[in-house]
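Supplementary Methods, section 5.1.

A reviewer requested that the exact input to the structure prediction be made available. We therefore reproduce it here, unchanged from the version used in the analyses.
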Amino acid sequence: MSRKSDELITDRLSARWNARSAPSVGATCVATVAVNAGIPSGRHILDAIMGSILNRSGGQYTVAVEVRDASIGGTVLADFDVIADSIAAAAGANAVAFVVNPTVQGLRASPLVVAIVPPNASVVQKVSASGWTENI
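The structure derived from this sequence is encoded token-by-token as follows.
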């Protein structure tokens, strides 16, 4: 293997990170990976998103799971929708859970943000994002 590919394998195995957000009901769910001070020109690679949505309202609720550059208002790098039926309609069902393996590359020297939007006063949202930081 070349030196560059060896470095990528090392980064993927050793420069791992995990960001979580479990806000109270009705708050915006945002997990942020800051720029790594030890790798200031590095690039975050997102390789897994896990989350759940518990809908306590009377009808279906659709949220967008967004991967953004820099902040909650930054450029959308990837997104997908999740539809959660209400507990009342689903007769005691638990939260809708999801796991996605998107492989999204962030921009160099920039935070990476995973957000579930919009917030709702009767919806509980949780998200965990994991990946690694490329240092080449």
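The first helix runs from residue 3 to 14. These observations are discussed further in the main text.
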